[in-house]
Amino acid sequence: MTEIRFTGVGHRFGERTVLAGVDLVLTERRIGVVGGNGSGKSTLARMINGLVLPSTGTVTVDGLSTARKGRDVRRRVGFVFTDPDNQIVMPTVAEDVAFSLRRHRLPDPEVRRRVTEVLDRFDLAGHADHPAHQLSGGQKQLLALAAVLVTDPDVLVADEPTTLLDARNARRVAALLAELPQQVVLVTHHLHLLSGFDRVVVVDGGRVVADADPATALAAYDRVLADPAGPAIP
Amino acid sequence: MTALGLYRPGTSVLHRLPAGAKLVGLLAGTVLLVVLRRPWQLGLAALVEVLLYALARIPPGVAWTQLRPLRWLVVVVAAAQLLLAGWQQALWVTGGLVLTVALAALLTLTTRVTALLDVLHRLLRPLRRFGVDGDRVALLLALTIRLVPVLSGIVREVQEARTARGAGWSLTAVAAPAVVRALRTADHVGEALVARGVDD
Predict the structure, then answer these.
(1) Could you tell me if residue A234 is inside a domain?
(2) Mean pLDDT of the residues in chain B
(3) Transmembrane residues, as ranges (chain B) (predicted)?
(4) Between residues 108 and 127 of chain B, which touch chain A (CB distance below 8 Å)?
(5) Angle (CA) A112 A113 A114, round 5°
(6) What's the predicted TM-score (pTM) here?
(7) Are residues B89 and B46 in the same domain?
């Protein structure tokens, strides 16, 4: 597995501290990240592919610094967002998947082959030439996932990919994520999705407050939620 | 619903023709439609377009969807021309307008956006020395087409939220939250573009 390493990571948006003192070495195949709204978990996830660069400390993926080698890191790390509408950039389904391959400069038949293959895998083959905006919410998230996985990244970071989906589609997306050969870092509020995971990191008030197997970490998260004092950093 | 990006997959001659050739055809057709001066020429052009639509196997309902947004414009233009310039001028202007839009719609119905963007990319290549990045321009146009339905969705949701709170239509009251949400969407799309390696 890929090694994702946070060393002394802190981050501020203006006056507000969103992350402080984060040291993590992530090498497990299935890693969950949980925390409340504004806890800093999304910022943590965005640091893995260099979308957010830390104010202090460093983040590396297989030794590559996200600050200096952002481009190489992003080739290894795919990212799925909460709202697929923000992630789909081309007007039709097949074109959006093909868009991911543009920077790979592959010959046309190879692009077509890969696009067809990934659309088949996600049951979107029948929609290849349909406008992306006509897909259902669940299908849009499948398309977003397909468009990321077509480039075959080593790591997939997903920031609340099931939050906007109904129960059926959430289960579908979760099952697809579970089957992936890739290393997966899943940020979620749907705690039941983490049952088979290797490791769960709990973020609260910009700090990692628990880091263990799912049962232990989620029990710690329960105690955080019950704490009337609230998070350490407001 | 917007008519943009409404490519209809098919295998007709028109579908298989290179996008560049179709663009040249559209240009030539538009010039012809502007210089037409006799009613029989307009009738002939209309017949040719009907045949082209048949050749591309576009159902009449779909063709109508392309032209329906024009209906009020046609009424207004025709009325103005009738009053100011007579029935013949009214016929040429409105007929030419409808036929030009129909011809352009036929291009989008039979051509993938990607194919059009590739043509644009090639056309812009000589401008590279002046600092024009063809990839960027092509991406800009693709994003525009893609985000039209997203933006109309935002406006609809804002209006629904007002309706739910018992307020009626108001341009400023809808525009302000819609613009804020559109800007937030722009931030998110920008982030997703970086994640997908656009700037790399």
Answers:
(1) no
(2) 85
(3) 20-36, 42-58, 70-90, 96-117, 137-155
(4) 112-114
(5) 95
(6) 0.78
(7) yes
